[in-house]
Specification:
The protein contains no helices and 21 strands. By secondary structure, the chain is mainly β. A hairpin with a 2-residue loop joins strand 4 and strand 5. The protein is globular and about 45 Å long. It starts with 6 loop residues before the first strand and ends with a strand. The relative contact order is 0.09.
């Protein structure tokens, strides 16, 4: 939680040998929790948060960068809607970007949309359930009819929630998953949701991958990845029945980044 955090983009052609592609930094800012997505015009978009000292304490901002090749990145785009909030990650649907925000002016949760990833408009605020239970990190998945949102919570029961909504995604219904999930990430897999994050079972924290049935709210086929303690925040890509997962963990001598391939 310093004020000089930078983002490093690393790349690999085989998933085993990784090289530094680029470094992104912003003067007097702590850049953190970066997420990659692919825009509607096939560019890489980096969604990140920034912490910066202000006269009133610490300000938080949501910032986006763009690249054609992953090596050369655009200027930072910080729009007014990105000040005093924190848009966690971005999902694209029907040529639009959607992102859930929390903290600051959006401490009760807000959903934003954008046609270009640069200018963001708030669709609806105060959408998280039970404000006293502190909703935070999210992952959004779209189907033809519904949007699903996996929400982390850190007070009360600590249980993650699954939200559902229909276009224009201004009203959300939430259901308790009876399970803590930190750093949540979720993608579609047929009529199921493929979920990864930091789970807590038998007094142990670890990163795992599992299937979630959105109707029964039951988890199936739990796969624990090599991990423990401070861990999780996975990125997921599914291609040709292989799930590619990047995550970090502290179960070895130091906190490290790990890359896994799982046959689905």
């Amino acid at each position: 939680m310093s004020f000089d955090g930078v983002i490093r983009i690393i790349s690999s052609s085989d998933g085993e040998k990784w090289e530094l592609s680029s470094t992104i930094e912003l003067k007097k800012s702590d850049l953190r929790d970066p997420k990659l997505s692919i825009t509607s015009d096939n560019k890489l978009m980096l969604n990140t948060g920034s912490r910066k000292k202000t006269k009133k304490g610490v300000g938080t901002y949501s910032i986006t960068y763009f690249s054609d090749d992953g090596n050369n990145w655009s200027e930072a785009f910080i729009c007014d809607s990105g000040k005093n909030t924190w848009r966690w990650s971005t999902s694209w649907h029907d040529n639009k970007a959607y992102s859930m925000a929390y903290t600051g002016k959006d401490s009760l949760g807000a959903i934003y949309s954008s046609s270009d990833g640069k200018v963001w408009n708030k669709i609806q605020g105060e959408i998280f359930p039970k404000a006293e239970e502190r909703g935070s990190e999210t992952s959004i998945v779209f189907t033809e009819e519904l949007a699903y949102c996996l929400l982390r919570r850190d007070l009360g029961t600590n249980h993650a929630m699954l939200g559902t909504s229909r276009y224009p995604y201004s009203s959300w219904e939430w259901k308790d998953l009876k399970q803590y999930i930190g750093g949540p990430k979720m993608i579609s897999f047929g009529d199921k949701l493929l979920v990864s994050g930091r789970f807590y079972q038998d007094s142990t924290l670890f990163t795992a991958v599992t299937f979630l049935d959105p109707k029964s709210l039951e988890f199936e086929k739990f796969l624990k990845l090599p991990s423990s303690g401070d861990c999780s925040y996975p990125g997921l890509v599914l291609k040709d029945d292989i799930l590619y997962i990047s995550y970090y963990s502290s179960h070895e001598d130091k906190v490290s980044i790990y890359f896994a391939k799982v046959e689905v």
